[in-house]
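Q: Got a minute? One more chain.
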Amino acid sequence: MPHNDSDISKRLVTPEKLRERYSIFGEKHTFAKGDIVKWKPLLQDRRLPLENEPAVVIEVLDKPVFDKNEDAGSPYFNIAYDIILGVIGEDDDFLTFHYDSRRFMPY
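A: Always. Here it is, folded:
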């Protein structure tokens, strides 16, 4: 999840922490329609699904979608959204969103 400024001032970034996140991010998983997935540890960058909450793969895109609304200063700039997941929202409704599949693992 995105952090506020007070969280950032308290964090300690080390080479070991960077290597750990890089390793988790680099773990490859192949997904198919109907698979149940969750965030990889420490890689949640959106509000939904919640940490350790399941999501269902709706579609794995052959060609990733790129958000053209973000500028180069945004962490979402030029991210390849290559998977569509279904999640349960706050009102218990079923929602679908595009995500970067590298941030997910099998549930």
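A: The helical segments are 5-10, 15-26.
Q: Perfect, thanks.
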